[in-house]
TrEMBL record:
Domain S-Me-THD-like C-terminal: 167-358
Entry superkingdom: Archaea
Organism: Haloferax profundi
Residue ranges of every copy of the S-Me-THD N-terminal domain listed in the record: 9-164
Name this polypeptide is given: Hydantoinase
Length: 360
């Protein structure tokens, strides 16, 4: 069913997508501001379920790529991704019917709404990751046979680069290099596809899930964890579960090759007193160890919440001394197939463990 997304819904999507984004996907506040400004200027956006698309609909996802810490310093206008989308239209001589997120997290859940508002397009209620991941081939679109190119990468100065590659890993490699040259953050349109391909390869309903999570967190009077459990329980994901509670005692970050790498160390509080957790990240949270043993890894979701307010904390906002709760959420089955784990399982990120799926 088509629904209308206005300013209030963008607030909820931004908050809920920060839970689903596992710490990454770009700064949610930036994406929210850009989307709200576009909706206030051009009007609300239709959110359509993949099943509502015609089989021959032309859909082009839009996103920001690069280091999240850089995106906070180089604020976008919202036109950047429109430029890349229109470059794809010119290349394929076909007008876009809808846009959609490539991932469910941070700026990249709300930024397509800015593009849609500016172009008068609907947004598809789906994405290609079901969370956030750091690289362009980390997509269900890629895993299940959609070509990522032609793709276009644009910056805030009006520069646009068109990319054609033989495979989607080369798309990531080349687009990342262009993004670094553009100052560490850029705006991409890729994986042009038909309505049939969206239905076959995308993870459906993720924008609605983000909106529902954000709305319940916003009105929660008691434990935010209970609100997240209630929403995830009835989703295609698994029910959220608490993995650890404690105080951040160390954060290490470095920006390299267009990514933010690092880890955060948490000393246990309450029931976890006497234990410690380390979370490793590459833009997004990848693995969580308690006392040296992994308790959750990609592709399952690892999200850090403020222990007092319940608000989700992106990786770039993790700070020494913060009291946090770490939660895990089981991913949909489309993200757990052998083909999917070959692309985004623990070994693909250098984690020295086998995938131990969360249940919920």
């Amino acid at each position: 069913m088509t629904v209308e997304i206005g300013v209030e819904e963008i607030e909820d999507i931004a908050l809920g997508a920060t839970v689903l984004g596992t710490g990454g996907g770009g700064d949610p506040h930036v994406g929210k501001l850009v989307a709200k400004q576009a909706i206030e200027e051009f009007g609300p956006v239709e959110l359509v379920h993949p099943d509502e698309l015609s089989d021959d609909a032309f859909v082009v996802p839009t996103a920001q790529m690069g280091a999240p810490t850089v995106s906070v310093e180089k604020l976008p206008s919202g036109q950047e991704a429109v430029d890349s989308l229109e470059r794809i239209e010119r290349e394929l001589d076909q007008e876009v019917d809808a846009t959609m997120p490539i991932e469910c997290g941070g700026i990249n859940s709300t930024f397509p709404f800015a593009v849609a508002a500016r172009r008068g397009l609907p947004v598809v209620d789906a994405d290609g990751m079901g969370r956030a991941f750091p690289e362009l081939h980390h997509e269900t679109f890629n895993i299940y046979g959609v070509s990522g190119t032609p793709a276009a990468v644009s910056d805030e100065r009006g520069n646009t680069c068109l990319i054609e590659t033989e495979d989607n890993e080369q798309l990531e490699w080349l687009a990342r290099g262009v993004t670094v040259r553009m100052g560490g953050v850029a705006y991409v349109s890729d994986y042009p596809m038909t309505g049939t391909q969206v239905k076959d390869t995308a993870i459906p309903g993720t924008m609605t899930l983000a909106r529902n999570l954000g709305r319940e967190l916003r009105v929660a009077e008691d434990d935010a964890m209970d609100a997240i459990r209630d929403v995830t329980r009835s989703s295609i994901y698994g029910e959220a579960q608490s993995l650890f509670e404690g105080k951040i005692v160390d954060v290490q970050r470095r920006t390299e090759h267009g990514f933010v790498f690092g880890h955060v160390d948490v000393d246990g509080l309450g029931r976890d007193e006497g234990s410690s957790m380390r979370i490793e990240f590459q833009n997004e949270n990848l693995g969580a160890q308690v006392d040296g043993e992994y308790v959750a890894t990609v592709p399952d979701l690892i999200t850090v919440l403020d222990r007092e307010t319940g608000g989700p904390i992106p990786t770039e906002s993790l700070r020494y001394g913060a009291r946090v709760r770490v939660l895990g959420i089981k991913t949909p089955e489309i993200m757990r197939t052998p083909a999917a784990l070959d692309v985004w399982g623990p070994h693909s990120f250098g984690l020295e463990t086998t995938y131990k799926p969360l249940e919920g």
